[in-house]
Specification:
By secondary structure, the chain is mainly alpha-helical. The chain has a domain of about 50 residues. The protein is about 55% helix and about 0% strand. The protein contains 4 helices and no strands. α2 packs antiparallel against α3. It is elongated and about 40 Å long.
Length: about 90
């Protein structure tokens, strides 16, 4: 179960950029998706819409770096019992 990290002290632009993004991996996924869609949109000729995706990717990048510098991501807390093979139920 993730441990809660208080985001109230984060700047508004960080909270808006990472709204409903609890984990660093998910933020990086969104960043790469923005870059990919930006390139795809540009390649099909919608050059006017591509910068929107690139600006979004840049926002994710800056927000990720800001949170990284302050160690503010949620931490996953795993107990040793739940990850050991002995704790897994065996069905016959």
């Amino acid at each position: 179960m993730p441990l809660e990290v208080s985001r109230n002290s984060w700047p508004l632009w960080i909270r808006l950029t990472l709204w409903k993004v609890p984990f660093r991996f998910l933020a990086w996924t969104y960043l790469w998706a923005c870059l990919l869609f930006g390139v795809l949109i540009f390649s099909i000729g919608a050059w006017f819409a591509a910068p929107i995706m690139l600006v979004a990717a840049a926002g994710y990048w800056k927000a990720i770096k800001w949170v990284d510098a302050r160690d503010g991501w949620k931490k996953l807390a795993f107990s040793t019992q739940s990850t050991s093979l002995e704790a897994l139920p065996v069905h016959h």
